[in-house]
Specification:
two-stranded antiparallel sheet, four-stranded parallel sheet, binds iron/sulfur cluster, alpha/beta, 135 residues
Length: 135
Amino acid sequence: MKIMVSACLLGENCKYNGGNNRNESVLRFVAGHEVISVCPEVMGGLPTPRVPAEIVAGRVTTRDGRDVNREFRSGAQQCLELARREQPDLIILQPRSPSCGVKQRYDGSFTGTLTEGPGVTAELLLRNGFRVIEA
Ligand code: SF4
């Protein structure tokens, strides 16, 4: 099986704070399969570490008010193009992220409050018919 996975779940230090979300269950699940590691925020040209961002009124904005919508959408588009080329059987993404969250994401208030709805990459992949789940 070919599986696309959020890079931070695999232990890559691509998270906004320079850390990762290494997930042993995910690592066990993907062992022996073909893994495609993606970090849409890095692919979109953002540095690590970076100021955290949330979706505010439909646009991705950093905590200090910078509009990073273009970078986030570019990373999402690049993930979609990679998925179209590679045709993964399954995509496993990091929960709650403004890029990778599938069911929920932070609500744009920067208070740690969650709201229903996907991040920009998950949304694009789902809309294009890929099988996307959260870790
Ligand atoms: S964009 Fe996705 S893969 Fe990259 S650090 Fe955030 S949650 Fe992880």
